[in-house]
């Protein structure tokens, strides 16, 4: 942020009076520009013993597999956002079952909220951001080709729960990648 | 938003190419300024059969009672944000027990995430945004003096669950107030 979105003058990064952290403050009109984490919403679309994954047609992680998910829009409920993303990325319609997992990804200011969902029919096909869309049984999940660690963590938890038949609501943290230990960095 | 925060030139509210909704787009440097809902995090601080409420020293709802809650900050986990807000508003330290309820307040682009929490000690006192901070038994809750409908909904659910001893994770929607029916507008 270089300029005030209200008046167009320059901003300074400093502590507003009475605040305990620095913000972008307009030195002309006085507006303080707060910046907050963004919520990513998505789902695990189930069809009996299979789940739907999308192969990404965009970067980051072009060509890798992921669950449908994306930024929550203004005016949208979290469940509606998860359904919209599933429709956009997989042209698939789902019924939301329940919230399933929340992951903090603090180092990129994102909070992921994933739902369990039921695929309403098998008339799905790749949306503009997907190369292909496919149903996978647990044994066929391309674990080495999953796009993001948060998706990997969600899927591991999901299949562990499916074996017991008991689903709860989980929270976890995805830590900044450590180049010395690329597999580490997930806290439950 | 009137000006581009990147280059300081004017913005137009229009659909970017390939998008399906209007955004603030800079006509000079081309940056699209996405705007997304903000997450409010807070908790229900428990001390045996009582819970802690704060009487607001600021508007909106000056003088009304609320649970400690506020906007999640960049770089913060949702649980850390709920603890920080409790410390700021009530100078109270809590252990987070579990996520408890998520409410969509779409008409103001806010998502509330409330936790259950355990008060660690009784050394609390009003923070700068509170007039007073007090422990209440269910029978003493000032129901007619609760600041926000989302707090009212959280407390009603909480006391209903406490009677059964079974706590789950809830989602609900706080709808735009209807002047003809001010008490309505909460969907579970």
Describe this structure in words.
- The structure is a homodimer of 188-residue chains.
- The first copy, chain A, is α+β, with helices and mostly antiparallel strands and 188 residues long.
- Chain A is 15% helix and 37% strand.
- Chain A has 2 helices and 12 strands; from the N terminus they run E-E-E-E-E-E-E-H-E-E-E-H-E-E.
- In chain A, strands 4, 5, 6, 7, 8, 9, 10, 11 and 12 form a 9-stranded mixed sheet that branches.
- In chain A, a hairpin with an 8-residue loop joins strand 5 (50-56) and strand 6.
- Chain A is elongated, with a radius of gyration of 19 Å.
- The mean pLDDT of chain A is 95.
Characterize this entry briefly:
Chain A has 188 residues and is α+β, with helices and mostly antiparallel strands. Helix content of chain A is 15%, strand content 37%.
Low-confidence residue ranges of chain A: none
Shape of chain A: elongated
| Largest interface: pair, residues per side | A-B, 42 and 42 residues
Distance between the termini of chain A: 34 Å
Q: Helix count of chain A, per DSSP?
A: 2
Helical/strand content category of chain A: alpha+beta
N to C succession of SSEs of chain A: EEEEEEEHEEEHEE
- The Rg value of chain A, from CA coordinates, equals 19 Å
| Percentage of residues assigned to helices of chain A | 10-25%
């Amino acid at each position: 942020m270089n300029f005030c979105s209200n008046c167009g003058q320059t901003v300074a990064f400093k502590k507003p009076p009475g605040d305990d952290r620095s913000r972008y403050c307009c030195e002309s009109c006085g507006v303080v520009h707060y910046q907050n984490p963004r919520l990513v919403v998505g789902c695990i679309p189930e069809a009996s013993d299979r789940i739907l994954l999308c192969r990404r047609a965009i970067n980051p992680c072009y060509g890798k597999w992921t669950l449908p998910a994306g930024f929550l829009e203004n005016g949208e409920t979290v469940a509606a956002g998860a359904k919209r993303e599933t429709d956009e990325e997989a042209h698939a319609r789902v019924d939301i079952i329940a919230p399933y997992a929340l992951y903090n990804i603090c180092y990129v200011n994102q909070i992921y909220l994933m739902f369990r969902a039921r695929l309403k029919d098998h008339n799905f096909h790749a949306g503009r951001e997907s190369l292909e869309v496919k149903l996978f049984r647990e044994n066929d999940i391309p674990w080495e080709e999953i796009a993001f660690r948060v998706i990997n963590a969600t899927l591991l938890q999901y299949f562990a729960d499916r074996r017991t038949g008991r689903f709860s609501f989980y929270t976890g943290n995805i830590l900044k990648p450590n180049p010395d230990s690329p597999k580490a960095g997930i806290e439950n």
